[in-house]
Amino acid sequence: MKKKLYLLYGGKSAEHEVSVRTAFAVIGALDFGKYEVSPIYITEQGQWIKRDALEQPVKQLSDLRLEIQKSTSTTPALFTGELGNGQEEPAIIFPLLHGPNGEDGTVQGLLEVLNLPYVGNGVLASAAGMDKVIMKNIFRDAGLNQVAYVSVLRHEWEGNSEIAYERVEATLNYPCFVKPANLGSSVGISKCNNREELVQAFVEAFQFDRKIIVEQGVVAREIEVGILGNDDPQCSVAGEIVPKTEFYDYTAKYEDGDTALIIPAEISDETYETIKTMAIQAFKALDCSGLVRADFFLTQSGEVLINEVNTMPGFTPVSMFPLLWKHTGIDYPQLIDRLIQLGLERYQEKQQIRYTLD
Fold first, then answer.
1. Predicted TM-score (pTM) of this structure
2. CATH 3.40.50.20 matches 3-118
3. Beta bridge partners of 305
4. Side-chain half-sphere of 346: how many Cα atoms within 13 Å?
5. What is the pLDDT of residues 315-358, one digit of tens each?
6. Which CATH class is domain 219-347?
7. Is the peptide bond before 175 cis (omega within 30 degrees of 0)?
8. pLDDT at 312 over 70
9. Residue 341: which H helix or E strand, with range?
10. 148-216, what's its fold?
11. What residue ranges do the domains of the chain occupy?
């Protein structure tokens, strides 16, 4: 009997298009003899549109941008009849959402309330991993080595921008990087070499979030690893990103391909073991499950600094996370199957939790 699988994609996020591309790639790799695949498209306005189960992969990206019908149901009603009857496993949800309103714990919370199994990280890990300030605070408390950083709220900046700039300059040196705290895919990020650029970077970043983070710039190689698992996470080989632009921005990632991925990265066994240990430590510190891509800086002196983790990394076949696992021995369709299995395992474990005192 086929397992029911719902793919959630799109989303009310600046990373909407990235999510649609991810869904297109996943659908193309799924075994339709094993899964009954039903797309659920979330529009940029936040409406949820469910499509009947697919009989085969869609042929073009535009087929996944579903149109709103007058009879479109409310969000929880989309899952009516999919909660299981206690005798069989319910449908499993695969959230292929990037950024706010999808990767940040909001959708995960809905699925927890509906008691549905889903792929990937839970509410806490998703929320903490999405907020770069909270994430770095947790890394700090876990003793993980990282660059210096400063966080600023919009109301602080609007109330007295000069104090905000001075606080950054008192803690960090130029160059530094300004980023929205709750956004991925390098959206809204600016490199700053002086006060004038810092001012413009604040304006840019605050368009996307009420909180920003400013990080110390560092001359270093960018090394990434994939983590797969629940309570016993495993680490992939390491890969290196070599951007041809000044830094790895949204355009370099998704539009012009102006970057090189080197897998496996040319690093020593000792350095790899350090990265592996830190990546798994970060995974456990955030209470992650399913998957994570952990990003590191490797300085010229050999110091390893954790940059961030991504709880829903880019997931097309040419994205770093799937490529890392391909070079580790797990190809793209196998990776999808493994993630679905990990989601079911975590769901089954949660069903053992008591919620009454009887």
1. 0.89
2. yes
3. 297
4. 27
5. 998 899 999 999 999 999 999 999 999 999 999 999 998 888 87
6. alpha beta
7. yes
8. yes
9. helix 332-350
10. Dna Ligase; domain 1 (3.30.1490)
11. 3-118, 148-216, 219-347
